[in-house]
Design brief:
This protein is an alpha/beta fold. The chain contains ten helices and ten strands. The strands form two sheets. Strands 1-2-3-5-7-10 form a six-stranded mixed beta sheet, with helices on both faces. The longest helix is centred in the N-terminal third of the chain and has 19 residues. The radius of gyration is 19 Å and the shape is globular.
């Protein structure tokens, strides 16, 4: 499948999505939204893919927000349609039954920060710059920025970042809980691939269950969330992977999981 604004590489069990508009700092335009929808759908339906990495082409930007040039002629109705589509896309990424790693190689602003927060694990270059500066355009985040940010770092810190539009460095973002790890720029993809290798060998159905338990249970009352977790735990016992995992442990050998 040919794309104009991104590249999709399938390397064995690893899928890499590269946002590819370096002259625009990989800004997210309508074309990219459509192509990301296609790429995510292809990955979701590919049983051979077990881990996904999203990163940007070049060393300047992961994604420096939405493409502001498209905002100039956008009516309120156009904006509503655009942001609904963007929210659905980020939910699809968040709900993929496979781990999604963001490799933040530079600016992750606005929609780029929202895309980053929709991923399961975030590794960033020490040169990364992160923020939700929409307030400086007279608008607010619309792709989940106010909601995921508050859930990740708390309401007060989220309000401060969104109200000031401040852009922060990777170390500060890590200290706030926005990033899992900060690494030197030349080691970012090396570290991301190491993580992907660890995740690739895990049981796919258990991985899916972990994501569902955490994502769906997060906003439930604790008693209901525990019941949901218990149901998913029990369902894992109906899989061949559970049999393989237990047998491998008892036989003191590495397990080979097939997602069955």
């Amino acid at each position: 499948m040919g794309f104009q604004t991104l590249e999709l590489r399938i390397e064995g069990s690893l899928a890499i999505i590269l946002l590819n508009r370096p002259k625009a700092l990989n800004a997210i335009n309508l074309t990219m939204v459509g192509e990301l929808e296609q790429a995510v759908g292809q990955i979701r339906d590919d049983p051979g893919v077990r881990v996904v990495v999203i990163t940007g082409v070049g060393d300047k930007a992961f994604a420096a927000g939405a493409d502001i040039t498209e905002f100039k002629a956008m009516s309120p109705i156009d904006a509503w349609i655009f942001v609904q589509r963007l929210q659905r896309l980020f939910l699809e990424i968040e709900r993929l039954p496979k781990p999604v790693i963001a490799a933040v190689n530079g600016y992750a602003l606005g929609g780029g920060c929202e895309l980053m927060m929709a991923c399961d694990i975030v590794y960033a270059s020490d040169a990364a710059r992160i923020g939700q500066p929409e307030i400086n355009l007279g608008i607010i985040p619309g792709g989940g920025g106010t909601q995921r940010l508050a859930r990740l770092i708390g309401k007060q810190r989220a309000k401060e970042l969104v109200l000031t539009g401040e852009i922060i460095g990777a170390r500060e973002a890590w200290s706030l809980g926005l990033l899992n790890k900060v690494v030197p720029a030349d080691q970012l993809m090396v570290e991301v691939r190491k993580l992907a290798d660890k995740l690739t060998i895990k049981a796919p159905l258990a991985v899916k269950a972990v994501k569902e338990a955490i994502e769906d249970g997060y906003d439930m009352a604790l008693e209901r969330a525990l019941a949901y977790e218990g149901k998913l735990f029990a369902l894992c016992f109906a899989t061949e992977d559970r049999t393989e995992g237990v047998n491998a442990f008892l036989e003191k050998r590495p397990p080979t999981f097939e997602g069955k």
